[in-house]
Write a structure and sequence with these properties.
Largest sheet: none
Strand content: under 5%
Number of strands: 0
Number of helices: 12
Structural class: mainly alpha
Distance between the termini: 99 Å
């Protein structure tokens, strides 16, 4: 009975005696060249480049498959660089750093429109590393003072100004202006600030430098030229705390 079920299927589907049941459909092309001519020159076995060229009229773009392509524009067409997608602008980082090093130079307010935190985080990490090499592990105090001080200064600036400023932009400006304190930390690797007078004299210049740079940036961005001293006072206390962590 099983033999009749298996071998009588040809009669059920009208197949001939020589049909083995493996041919499911018939192609309308006698050879692959006929298929290529009807599909615009792309055969069944054509490459992806030929299909892309026949469909879009241009060659298939070459995609660079390397880890370096992730940091540039060597990937897909019109793809933005990875650093730009992450919001890291090296030109702005350079401009902000130079503005801190030369606080008397006129400030371009456009570079402070973004809340770039790459530079501040780098400066904080370098400062903490210098203090660690000096025998002082102050990472927790650095982040704690930085967080509380940033929130306090942000609240004061929003109460004093009409337009206001975002908390991340406040943190970005305060972090970039921390650079002179980082220089003070590097000096501490060569000089031991055991004397209170030496520590005070060494910290005065970085504190004044940081305060003047930061206050100038905030006054320029927020148009608060008449309130420069009021802006500089809490900022000076902020950087004095970092100076105390560095020299003691």
């Amino acid at each position: 009975m099983a033999h009749s079920v298996l071998f009588d299927q040809d009669q059920m589907y009208g197949g001939g005696g020589h049909n083995d049941g493996l041919e499911f459909y018939q192609t309308q092309y006698a050879n692959p060249n006929a298929a290529a001519s009807s599909t615009g020159g792309v055969g069944v076995h054509g490459s992806a480049d030929e299909f892309y060229a026949s469909s879009y009229g241009t060659a298939l773009p070459i995609v660079e498959r390397s880890w370096l392509a992730a940091f540039g524009t060597g990937g897909f067409p019109n793809e933005s660089p990875l650093m730009e997608e992450l919001g890291i602008n090296f030109q702005h980082i350079k401009s902000k750093t130079l503005a801190v090093l030369n606080p008397f130079k006129p400030i371009v307010t456009e570079i402070y429109d973004d809340a770039d935190m790459a530079g501040p985080l780098l400066f904080i990490l370098v400062l903490g590393t210098f203090l660690l090499l000096s025998g002082k592990s102050q990472f927790g105090y650095i982040y704690g003072v930085g967080l509380l001080g940033t929130i306090g200064i942000w609240a004061i600036l929003n109460l004093m100004s009409q337009g206001g400023i975002e908390v991340m932009r406040t943190a970005s400006i305060l972090g970039y202006c921390l650079l002179p304190i980082v220089f003070l930390g590097s000096i501490g690797l060569a000089i031991d600030f055991k004397s209170g007078q030496l520590a005070a004299i060494s910290a005065l210049v970085p504190i004044a430098w940081c305060t003047y740079s930061s206050a100038t940036m905030f006054v320029t961005v927020l148009s608060m030229s008449e309130q420069r001293l009021l802006v500089a006072y809490p900022i000076g206390l902020f950087y004095t705390s970092f100076a105390l962590l560095t020299v003691f």
